[in-house]
Design a protein that fits this description.
Elements lengths: L9 E5 L3 H14 L4 E6 L2 H11 L3 E5 L7 H8 L16 E6 L2 H10 L3 E4 L4 H19 L11 H12 L10 E6 L2 E6 L3 E6 L4 E5 L3 E4 L3 H7 L5 E5 L2 E4 L3 E6 L5 E5 L5 E3 L12
Parallel strand pairs: 1-2, 1-3, 3-4, 4-5
Antiparallel strand pairs: 6-7, 8-9, 8-12, 9-10, 11-12, 13-14, 14-15
Helix pairs in contact: 1-5, 2-3, 3-6, 4-6
């Protein structure tokens, strides 16, 4: 037995139509026979739960599902905590949207952050997606390679969510109500250098003030303008306008410096593509 054989690639499929799930599974078996489909979800909420349970390498998400769209499910998946006992730097799964509406996924496809397949899944088009996924997964597992998947994931998912529901365009936070000592202070969002979370609190750092709030990063991601605040780690958001430089430490990890604070912020592998070429 070859003990050095790579681990099998595992996938979750999510679509509210049973026939579509069966058709996609059958097509995948044809073009990617070694792929292991570990679970199928009937809606977005179930998809998030199954991804958290199984930690697959790839998730195929119908872009329109009841309760939670595929885009919203992808946003929640991107914020899942690492598996119990797992690495804090655990990579996010690759996302493939399944859609009957070509215009919703063109931007995602062109940016290379996620891929998409039109319904019904045609063998030839699915083969192209599989080839891209194989290359991306091989890059993840390669020595010293950076994962490309999450570089602009949140920014892209915000845009796709607005396309799906333009009437619900987000209104981003302008003020943060935070505890400073025994007082409550209103902090303008534009003055925040970065947010860093631990198990219970999120630290809000400005050039003058350090404050605490109970809102976790996964909620702040949806409430802050993604053009201004970039997620660089599961526990860190940084104001892109305050970034003064990006260096590498002795491990080869990217480290962000911000104007107005001596603290250095580590970039996790999933978000290393934000600073491609560094």
């Amino acid at each position: 037995m070859n003990t050095n054989a790579p681990a099998p690639v595992r996938a979750v499929i999510a679509d509210d139509e049973r026939l579509m799930r069966e058709q996609l599974r059958a097509r995948l078996a044809e073009v990617w026979p070694e792929l292991e489909v570990v679970a199928e979800a009937r809606n977005g909420l179930e998809a998030v739960e199954l991804v958290e349970q199984h930690r697959p390498d790839v998730v195929f998400l119908d872009i329109r599902m009841p309760g939670l769209t595929g885009v919203d499910a992808a946003r929640r998946i991107a914020q899942l905590a690492p598996a119990e006992g797992g690495d804090e730097d655990e990579l996010l799964p690759e996302i493939v949207f399944i859609t009957a509406y070509d215009q919703y996924a063109v931007e995602a496809f062109e940016q290379g952050v996620v891929d998409y397949v039109l319904k019904p899944a045609e063998r030839e088009r699915l083969q192209l997606t599989v080839e891209r996924l194989r290359r991306r997964l091989a890059a993840r597992r390669g020595e010293g390679e950076e994962a490309p998947a999450a570089a602009n994931m949140q920014q892209l998912l915000h845009k796709l969510a607005a396309q799906l529901n333009p009437a619900a365009a987000p209104r981003y936070l302008e003020w943060i109500q935070a505890g400073v000592g025994s007082a409550i202070q209103m902090i303008p969002v534009q003055e925040v250098l970065f947010f860093v979370s631990d198990e219970k609190y999120t630290r809000v750092q400005t050039a003058q003030v350090e404050a605490l709030i109970r809102k976790p990063i996964k909620e702040l991601v949806d409430e802050l303008d993604p053009r201004q605040f970039w997620q660089i780690h599961r526990s860190t958001l940084v104001n892109v306008n305050t970034i003064s430089g990006v260096t590498r430490d002795f491990r080869g990890r990217q480290i962000v410096s911000v104007r107005g604070s001596p603290q250095k912020l580590e970039v996790s592998r999933s978000y290393a593509g934000l600073f491609k070429g560094m």
